[in-house]
Amino acid sequence: MTGFTKSEFDLLVRLVQPEIYPHPGKRRVIEKLDDQLFLLLNFFHFGSPTVSHLITSPFLKTQDATIRLIHSFLQSVKVSLSDVFLTFRPDRIRGMEEVALVLDCTVLPVNKTGKEFNCGSDCFSGKHKIYCVKVEVGVNPKTGTASTVSKVHGGAVHDYVVFREHYSQFAARLDGGKIMADSAYIGAKSELGAIITKPVGTPELAAHREIVERFFGRLKTLFTIFRRPWPLKISSIAEYFYVAFCLTNYHILQNPLSEEDFEANQLFLSDLITKAEQKRQKKELANEKYKPDYLID
Length: 297
Fold this sequence. Notes:
This protein is α/β, with parallel strands linked by helices and 297 residues long. Helix content is 48%, strand content 11%.
């Protein structure tokens, strides 16, 4: 019910050190650390506030109260999780020693009606033909764990624009190393001279860059919530993304990335495109069906 084995979960409980915020005269409905962590992982794993509320319903009357409890716990552990699992390590791959970071963006579907993120044209991805947000992640070229995470942007924002804002956060830590990325970052290659893009006909480079897609595959295999439209306020996505990346790093350290993770990410992207095309065709059929007679040839 969490995506983690019992031994992995027990170890995680020992590693997590939540910050305790004072609430005069109040107590958490669920006090034990392992119960709170279980609730958070369950929410990530199933991606459904309804499922999570089934667990807390003996103690909490509403689904909103359950989400507030989950969010409160998430905020209390994000610092300790990032300190332990989201670190920038100077690992290198044999034969590719100059590469310090492998970079790419991933998308998360959102509902068109989101207001607080200005989710209109800013959230529509012309590439994937869906409403989504995106975040850029730099992963360790050896382990595949996330080393740096950007802010969340609307799906219409180009990867290169996200990179330009994100770069200043980690540039000093590259220590002379280069970044490996795909052809979307070709502009940064000429500007910074620190980008290795994926040229056509170089399968070796493509295979090394594949590790960031394996990370995304593991994230979305573990946590269903990142494979479907976001169920909460869009303004909350950044915090949930950040904690999920930390938890994914922990899982990767226990279970190294594999080809299956890459295939899982490709399947997710293919499914996004298929659903977008089906939705477009359905809309065209509806428009054709209700077209006024004077517009029909």
